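Thread: quick sanity check before group meeting

JM: Hey all, I'm pulling together slides for Thursday and realized we never actually wrote out the predicted structure for the chain we discussed last week. Dropping the sequence here so it's in one place. If anyone has concerns about the input, flag it before I start.
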Amino acid sequence: MQDKTLNISFDNFAQEGLYLIFPDSTRVELTRDNIQMMTKEYWNDPKKIPDYVKTGIDFQRCPFCPLKNQNDLCDALRPVLPLLEVVDKYASFEKITAVYKGPDTSIYHVADTPIQEALRFISMISLMHYCQIGKRFWQYYFDVVPLMSGEEIARRMYLNIYWLNKGNQQEIDNTIALFEQRIRITSTNQIKRMNLFCKKDAFMNAFANNQAIIMLLSMCTDKSLNEALEGFKTKTPV
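JM (edit): ok, ran it. Output follows.
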């Protein structure tokens, strides 16, 4: 099978962000500027969100949201809604090419991956940068690449939490427990909201996958991380 990564010109991925190339060559650029532009356009079009959806119980903010009494839309939906019309054309298991360009100008991450895996990037942005509660935890995602495996993301998050709590195991456990509880609820509520919009399951699975990573995080221990590092050290260099 031909390796798709060989056909990619990195000159076409100038800005930091995630680029999705679908089977029919549709290209979606999930850069900061594009997300803001698409969100604003979608947000200001009343035809995009029917009244019956706005008033639905599952559409309302989470019970612990500081803005729960306001009659408006959950902020975590902002980076999701503009992409529904594109993503809903495909099944969650369909393969796409995903290119992630991080802050480092010379490093790219490329994957031939199911749509639902690539969309974890948007679920992370939704929960960590837009959700009123989730954005309090953004530091836990420091240096996480969205195309990492779930196990790798969980380990990276554990290390971040370990560092933020200066190795205090009781504080680490308390932090992870609170984080898991909050994200489990917000992810579940996002999936319910997606059910009101989505015809396909790609976005719902993306949020479910993100929730599964948080559950993996709660199972991380110093012992499991040490075992992973020992396994890495014993691998034969390529």
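AS: nice. Confidence is low (pLDDT under 50) at residues 1-6. The longest strand covers residues 95-101.
JM: adding both to the slides.
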